[in-house]
Amino acid sequence: MVKKAGKEEHHLWKKRDSAGSGQKALNLVRIVSGLPNEKEAVYGALDKWTAWEAEFPLIATSKALRILGKRKHWIRVIQVAKWMLSKGQGMTMGTFDILLLAFDMDRRVEEAESLWNMILHTHTRSISKRLFSRMISLYCHHDLPDKIIEVFADMEELGVKPDEDTVRKVAHAFQKLGEEEKQKLVLKKYLTRWKYIHLKGERVRVKRDPWDE
Question: PROSITE patterns, alphabetically (predicted)?
Fold first, then answer.
């Protein structure tokens, strides 16, 4: 019997997310959590954290941002995200999303607007539905109906279809601005005539009430 030699495997890519990225993220969270609330102290510690890295620890930093977000440490989210962006790293929709959320929770509307304008000018065609919804939610939380309509106008211009929750926020904004006709048009255009409810353990499709429900 002749035993065939096994095929040699060749990997054309190298996995960058090492098993240690989770531990690195937790270490970063521990470092920033024990610092005074000063930009110089935070940035200095973060620079020290990356000093011996061959390449920027993007995955670990992104994980640390998610951990800080879950713990509702919004100021630290803002500091770490800004530091990462200052290094030219993490320019992704995920980073922008958690940073906008942190600005919202920390009531820093002007900074959120500044970031949003940058996103609009540099990532126009790649802005996700989630990011539009995030900005509309931020303006909703801070009772700025006119700003909601501005974001919605950009959304329509770029052909991004809003989800149901966003549609209702936009409709409510039109209502607050005294534009009931536009409110009805938005609901009619974007809400389907059917919705799904759970009845006796089953998912059932039912007809909606009129558009102004």
Answer: PPR (PS51375)
User: Two tokens at 61?
Assistant: 């930093």
What 8-state DSSP symbol labels residue 12? Answer: S
Please name the residue that has the structure tokens 């035993």.
Answer: 3
Q: Which of 59, 74, 90 is the last residue of a domain?
A: 90
Q: Residue 197 burial (CB < 10 Å; 0-12/13-18/19+)?
A: exposed
Spatial distance between the Cα atoms of 149 and 155, rounded to a whole number of angstroms: 10
Does residue 45 contact residue 34 with C-beta atoms inside 8 Å?
Answer: no
Reported residue count of the chain is: 213
Structure tokens at 158: 């770029």
Instruction: Give dist(CA 138, CA 151) in Å, integer.
Output: 11
**116-171 tens-digit pLDDT:** 999 999 988 889 999 999 999 999 999 999 999 999 999 999 999 999 999 999 99
The C-alpha atoms of residue 184 and residue 132 are separated, in whole angstroms, by 21
Contact (CB, 8 A) for 67 and 26: yes
Q: Give the residue from 67, 90, 113 where a domain finishes.
A: 90
Q: Which domain holds residue 58?
A: 21-90
For residue 114, give Cα distances in angstroms to 32, 90, 99, 109, 111. 25, 17, 12, 9, 5
Q: Total domain count for the chain?
A: 2
